[in-house]
Amino acid sequence: MASGLPEPEPLLTLVEALRCLPGVGVRSARRMAYHLLQRDPQGALKLGAALTEAVTGLRHCERCNSFTQDAVCATCSNADRDTTLLCVVETPADQNMVEASHGYRGLYYVLQGRLAPLEGVGPDQVHFAQLLERATDGVVREVILATNFTAEGETTAYYLADMLRARGLTVTRLARGVPSGSELEYVDAGTIAWALMERRPTQG
Ligand code: ZN
């Protein structure tokens, strides 16, 4: 640490802990720590309790891999959903965006990641086996690939399309109204609804 002053152990521990957040270095971790301690100790206590509760109380849905308190989440248990459609997204945030478009009544599978060969993230790290098992339950007819239109998202879609088509499934990809390089999380609901409606079969 850059500071020349001796600092109390709990402060150092807090700064170190905050660094687990993506994109947070020592300097911003330190700013956050000072803010929490000086300006918002109540908020800090709430944050600590919420973190503990979320981490210990949540698990991955057995069917869609999203976060849930029960073995199977509310979406997967909803009898009104179309069980023949499975939409594959990278994150729960992307799932929320597709849901907010009101253009989809099928079910989901949340990868909780994407292929990123340059970062050493391969198929084994993203647990594709669970998706394969889910998609080949005999009920799913079409898998809609709604990974992001970034290099990593496209690589993931390409890989999954191959893998799923080989199992005899119809595999489609969101239409290209979504700008290249964009993450679903930042695309408006209308565009996502359109991209779903205009989805295209993937090419072998
Ligand atoms: Zn689920």
How would you describe this structure to a colleague?
The protein is α/β, with parallel strands linked by helices. The protein has two domains: 9-57, RecR Domain 1 (Helicase, Ruva Protein, domain 3); 60-201, Dna Topoisomerase Vi A Subunit, Chain: A, domain 2 (3-Layer(aba) Sandwich). Helices cover 42% and strands 13% of the residues. The protein is built from eight helices and seven strands. The strands form two sheets. Strands 4-3-5-6-7 form a five-stranded mixed β-sheet. A two-stranded antiparallel ribbon has the order 1-2. The longest helix has 17 residues, at 41-57. The model has no long low-confidence stretch (mean pLDDT 92). Residues 61, 63-64, 66, 72-73, 75-76 line the site of zinc ion.
Map the helices and strands.
Blueprint: H1 9-18, H2 26-39, H3 41-57, E1 59-60, E2 67-68, H4 74-77, E3 82-89, H5 92-100, E4 106-110, H6 128-135, E5 142-145, H7 151-165, E6 170-173, H8 189-197, E7 200-201
Parallel strand pairs: 3-4, 3-5, 5-6
Antiparallel strand pairs: 1-2, 6-7
Helix pairs in contact: 1-2, 2-3
Bound molecules: zinc ion.
Zinc ion binds at residues 61, 63-64, 66, 72-73, 75-76.
The quaternary state of the protein chains shown equals single chain
Class of the largest domain, according to the CATH hierarchy? Alpha Beta
How many domains, in number, for the residues?
2
Structural class: alpha/beta
**N- to C-terminal separation?**
53 Å
